[in-house]
Amino acid sequence: MHYGHFDDKAREYVITRPDTPRPWSNYLGSTEYGAIITNHAGGYSFYKSGATGRFLRMRFNSVPLDQPGRLFYLRDQENGDFWSTSWQPVGKPLDKYKSTCRHGMGYTIIESRYASITTEATYFVPLGQTFEYWRLRVTNKSKRERKLSLFTYCEFANLWSTFQDLVNLQYSQFITRATLEDGILGITCNPNFDFDGQDLTSCNRTWMALSGTPLAGVETTRERFCGPYGGYAAPDAVVKGRCSNFLGEGDNIVGGQQADLTLAPGETKEVFVLLGLGTVKSHGWKTVAEFGNPARCEEEFRKLKASWHAPLKNLQVETPDANFDAMINTWNAYNALITYSWSRSASLVYNGERDGLGFRDTVQDILGATPLLKDGVQSRLELMLTGQLANGGAIPVIKPFSHQPGKEPPPPDHEYRSDDCLWFFNTIPAYVAETGDIDFYSKVLPYADRGEATVLGHLRRALEFNLERTGRNGLPCGLAADWNDCIRLGYHGESVFVAFQVRYGLDVYAGIAEKLVQPGEADWARAELAKLDEKIQKTCWDGEWFIWAIGQDGTIYGTKNFPEGQVYMNTQAWAILSGAATPAQTKQALATMREKLATPYGLMLCAPPFIKANPEIMKATLFNAGIKENAGIFSHTQSWAVMAECLQGNGDQAYAYYRAFMPSAYNDRAEIRQVEPYVHCQTTYSRYNVNEGASRVPWLSGTASWAYYSATHWILGIRPEVDGLRIAPCIPKNWPGFKMRRNFRGRLITIEVQNPHGVSSGVRSLTLDGKPLEGDLVPAGRIKPNSKIVAILG
Ligand code: GLC
């Protein structure tokens, strides 16, 4: 069953059936003024932080999942019938009510048609501004004049704090106040405090205006607008058709505004809600005067779209799979940029409680943004490098607005994660390869707590951190966790996953050192690598697959002899990605993955699930079987399997794995996956659970970054390296080829891959602007603007 389709040209996902299995969401705004919206106009807004800057309320995990939000109601004054301009919350019967929702990049347009009235509501936050627009066009499609009342509705969160707002009601319900100043609503918490209009942080002041039509009345408390029992489906004010103009002092302040519209047959009226930060006096009047007109709104909308669409030009593809193209050209890219911006802080699932930049997640998120963004990536990388401590470990969460390199206290020993800084070995070389800026390795940056080092020095400390903390088999300690948040091996327990990460890191480090002509460093890394390889081979191979980990007490996880979590996907994939696996082990480990972990919906993280294992060590036991870390299909890791298959040239298998978790591949059976078919999610229920196939936690997941990277750099195989562009596709055999248009160091070029012999990989011939090249690397110095690279596989 499908609920919508991809409009690739407009870069929109168009929901044509509003009764989606769950509300399907989108992002508006920026990291300053953030906002979430769903196809039912549900959602919330916040300033900088979802937790401590929340000013528009949405009640999490409610029924439905996304109310309230930014609502428009219409009421026919002649017969009293009313509806909302999004299908929910009124929920008119779908044989009479038509609705379309177009989610675009940074905006959402919801259209409706009911009782011969059509509406189009466009929601967005103009670039660089601290207010949002809700533009509504109402058209009378009937042959007679229509008299309608329009009502706006949203709820303001108290104290700009999600927790105070929903929990501390004995306080937060008594500090609120609404004012009406020259037709603009002012919403205040702690109204007796002055606000100077300058620093918006926690100013607790918002304003809301209706422009384009006279204000007929206001209803400023939820208690009056909805009534005690009307709810959002049949709020009192709308049922009655009038507002009381009561200005609330206490209780729940809401943005209820009324306008009366008389529409001739065929006539369209356009009205605007502008809602933003600051007081009416400091921001409201000025903003409405400048922005509250159709021409300005349209101009801001155009600017916003252009700004979001611009980075996409840096990488566009044309392959035989339209679903794949829809993801790579728009949605996966957008998903990666949103995740890069918001980390794990704000969605319909994350309510702000995870504020800040989780170290490992953020370093990985940078990987997805690197080919797309030409600005900002380096400063984000530098921010993370300055979150590394002088001992080589990392602060688990960086607070970007208050981070003070050189002055941050190190965490207590038992809080270090073993993997945090090892992700630099994926991200930093990718950044340097993208930009060609090899001098970045020589840039000196402070550590979080004390001292400083070059970027190369930071990388060395990262390796030393793990080399200095080893367990009884000489493998890296698991510490508080590795990538898997659910394992507590004990400080001296050993993580095989991290062993592979360290191996990968040493190899990468040696390569960088050679490039920088630092042979001593390269020798050091290679010697450490050889020692580590010996330990890995001695301890980690179980006969048919690599083990998972070794607990502090010596228990081996991920082995034939342990009944739960016998096979762990990450150590198979990373044994191969790191180069630790021998050719025979590689073949066998891949076969084991296919046999024991692969399902139609993706590869399970492990199998069988944990039921009896000690949750003090295997926290996965806390979850139901078949989800998240407990034998669920963890989307984040799928790309590692894809890349491992690509490394062996298995293009068909790699692509089969890719499509199994690719959201758009489920567009025609969206009822299975349930969440948005245009974005990645964190996890999907596996066959060990009654919800098999259903996905959860859409949008904010490391999946976005890795899925984008594995598709573009490994399946399509167009990989920047310091010296040039490597052309190493690993595609399905039945693809006749593909095209990519890519920005390579400021030059837009075209790469065309032809596959006349029906193979997956192996470049038989390569030309640059018609001239033949040896091998599969196009030298950077020879690539010009508009260069055309043609590769023939075979
Ligand atoms: C979540 C966390 C991530 C972790 C993963 C596996 O996605 O955000 O940091 O690596 O779970 O536990």
Automatic annotation (TrEMBL):
Keywords: Glycosyltransferase, Transferase
A GO term, aspect molecular function: carbohydrate binding
Pfam families linked to this entry: GH94_b-supersand, Glyco_hydro_65C, Glyco_hydro_94
Domain Glycoside hydrolase family 65 C-terminal: from-to ranges: 719-759
Gene Ontology biological process terms in this record: carbohydrate metabolic process
Keyword hit for Transferase: yes
Entry keyword annotation includes Glycosyltransferase: yes
UniProt xrefs under PANTHER family: CELLOBIONIC ACID PHOSPHORYLASE-RELATED (PTHR37469), PUTATIVE-RELATED (PTHR37469:SF3)
Protein's UniProt name: Glycosyltransferase 36
Organism per entry: Opitutus terrae (strain DSM 11246 / JCM 15787 / PB90-1)
